[in-house]
Amino acid sequence: MAHKTPSIHFELTDGSLRTVPAKAGVSLMRHALDNGIPGIPADCGGDCACATCHVHVDPGWFSQLPETTQQESDLLDIVDDLCDVSRLSCQIVVTEDMDGLTVKIPEFYV
Amino acid sequence: MNIAANDLLAEHTQRARQMRVEDIDVVDGALYQDGTWMPYFERLRAEDPVHYFENGRFGPNWAITKFEDIMEVEKDWRLFSSDVDWGGVLIWQKAPENRLRSLISSDPPSHSVKRKAVQTVVHPRRLQQMDQLVRERTIKLIEDLPLNETFNWVEKVSIPLTTLTLATIFGFPMEHRHLLTHWSEVAFADLLGDCDTIKTEEDRAVELNKCLETFLELRAERRRTGETDDLLSILTHSEAYRDVDDKELLGNLITLIVGGNETTRNTMSGSVLFLNQFPEEARKLRQNPDLINSMVCESIRFQSPILAFRRTATRDTVLRGKQIKQGDRLVLWYVSGNRDSEIIENPDQFIIDRDDPRKHVSFGGGVHRCVGNRVAEMQLRILWEELLKHDLQVEVVGEPRRPYNLFVHGYTDLPVQVRSLAG
């Protein structure tokens, strides 16, 4: 029986959904860049130094992700569109059990 | 580069290699005025990347010269403070009563509130709205440039364009916009250099007080007219700024004026110079204008328009094996981090199609990362889009002149001739 490829969903600002194949060990930010998801400029390249890869995580998924570090939370304090489920996508490394992870792209950089 | 400039660089390269590494002093405005800083930092990065120098112009401080160390310090604001209570972000140490608090010289949480208020003015959506205006002004300016005639690019292009944008972002009266440029120069003019406008600290205080007075008046007017989408409105109406005292208002004004002016202006001049120094890159750009965006980023890296910012250690710590004491000053030399070959391949080459053109430290990192970076990139992008569309080539025809300064890395003169490649 063929396995369904694990995938990640990005909800764009126009409400549409983009589904991309999930790669374990790769950051969520990298998934967005490699698949041309708009609104994630990721200026610093994944160094947790710029806050330009901000996403809103689906509330159901938010609590299942590894905790936010202090460095990440410092940067979240300066983003626009901050909400209870805000994360920097460069700090979320996709794992095999994240099949179906859904995040929303904030409007800022779109 | 002419022969004299080449000789001078060769002399400094030899000197930098032969002197004792512990004697290297990079807090010397002449290095940046003469363009001879490179070999000293090259040696420091290789042999003493976290470099203590005791007897410099502004007293003892650490020179942080490697890309990764700079980012590490930038990201840890609890350990390496920007706050005026620790001394602020400038290399020199001022007496507490002479320090001006601003968004850049505050730590979180008060910094976050001040920064987010400013961020609304440079929101990408707002910049999209400004694109057309900046483009129209750019077109008008370059269409009026003389052809085949020597003029100073700094004066005729870089200053006017950035001043127009800054006045718009501030909501400052257009007819007085030259004052913004003036205050920007006065704020950080080095009195050891040849400065025409001010000779003493008293002169500086008088000029900056005029800046404060002007903005106090503008603010009083704005209180009557209600909110708009410019900086003046934020400084007048936002919770973050409306109740700050005069000193803090001036601190913020200087930060925002200099941040919005010197950096972009000097990169505009730098981009012209670099494309002349690396003609193969200019050819690439002309063949493929899609490279403008990455060329802009590369110019910002190569110029490093702000030489350095400082942090102060809030407790004893160790950085790259060096014992840092509480209260020590750390100077983050962006100009050096941007030439770190461990992070950037062939860092002394200007290469407009790098894979990762945003990989530079010119904008800093962490919570104080440049808030106006998109405004800078937009102005540079539009200038080059229009120069290429108009088929204009800017040829550097004389030696650039730079100011004697330890903060702003720029140009006072860049003699050029503009040629039309059309027809």
UniProtKB/TrEMBL annotation, chain A:
Q: Which UniProt keywords apply?
A: 2Fe-2S, Iron, Iron-sulfur, Metal-binding
Q: Name one GO biological process term.
A: P450-containing electron transport chain
Q: Which organism is it from?
A: Roseovarius azorensis
Pfam families per the record?
A: Fer2
Required cofactor(s): [2Fe-2S] cluster
Q: Which CDD domains match?
A: fer2
**Protein family (similarity comment):** Belongs to the adrenodoxin/putidaredoxin family.
What Gene Ontology molecular function terms does this protein carry?
A: 2 iron, 2 sulfur cluster binding; electron transfer activity; metal ion binding
Q: Which residues form a coiled coil?
A: none
The protein, known as: Ferredoxin, 2Fe-2S
Q: What domain of life does the native source organism fall in?
A: Bacteria
Q: Where is the 2Fe-2S ferredoxin-type domain?
A: 6-109
UniProtKB/TrEMBL annotation, chain B:
Q: Which SUPFAM superfamilies match?
A: Cytochrome P450
Xref: Pfam families: p450
Question: Which key words are in the record?
Answer: Heme, Iron, Metal-binding, Monooxygenase, Oxidoreductase
Q: Which GO terms describe its molecular function?
A: heme binding; iron ion binding; monooxygenase activity; oxidoreductase activity, acting on paired donors, with incorporation or reduction of molecular oxygen
- Signal peptide (from-to): none
InterPro entries in UniProt: Cyt_P450, Cyt_P450_B, Cyt_P450_CS, Cyt_P450_sf
Into which family does the record put it? Answer: Belongs to the cytochrome P450 family.
| Name the UniProt record assigns to this protein | Cytochrome P450
Q: What is the lineage of its organism?
A: Bacteria, Pseudomonadati, Pseudomonadota, Alphaproteobacteria, Rhodobacterales
